[in-house]
Amino acid sequence: MFRLFKRVRTLVSSELNAMLDKAEDPVKMLDQYLIDMGKDISEVEAAVASQVTNEKMLEKKLREAQAFVEKREQQALHALQSGDEDLARRVLEDKQKHQQQADSLHDSYEEARKLSQELRDKLREMKDEYQEMKMKKDALKARATSAKARTKVNRTLSDINHDSARQGFERMEEKVMKYEAEAETSEEMRGSNRSLDDELANLSTSNKVDDELEALKAKLNK
To answer: Basic and acidic residues bias located where (predicted)?
Structure first.
């Protein structure tokens, strides 16, 4: 599995030029490589999960075996304190049998724990390489897109009549300048009309004030 993943990474780094020479779409090919790498990671993740489950199961059995050994030791001590040496001997014999099982479980658990750690390390390395290839793919994709865009622009420019386009822009510029002049003229006319209306409004307000002032003077005279 890990060798296959390394082979995919090698293809990404060493066969890009070959893809371009064969007129293959590098973006699509790189996407496919990442898909394959993602599948490899999923398979390793499943293997890690299975191994961790096995490790936990062995750990549980080991603890149970150790607890039973300790229980037998306490029972043998209790039998000896009660004066039943024969019972204490038989309990210790059974304890030794379970101790052998516990020792065997301990060895199996340690092997499972080491294997789980190795798989975790490989999975982490694969994920790091996947992210590295993903970033490289994004960079290559951007370069490919830029190259295609430049080619398209160059081909378009080669087919354009530059003189005709420039003359067209000059005509449009003259029209825009004409629109701007018309807009400025209309704003000046609107400003002039507004000033006249404001003066008339002020005159009307001033006349009302004068009338009220004369009325107040008449009240005072009375």
So the answer is: 179-197, 208-222
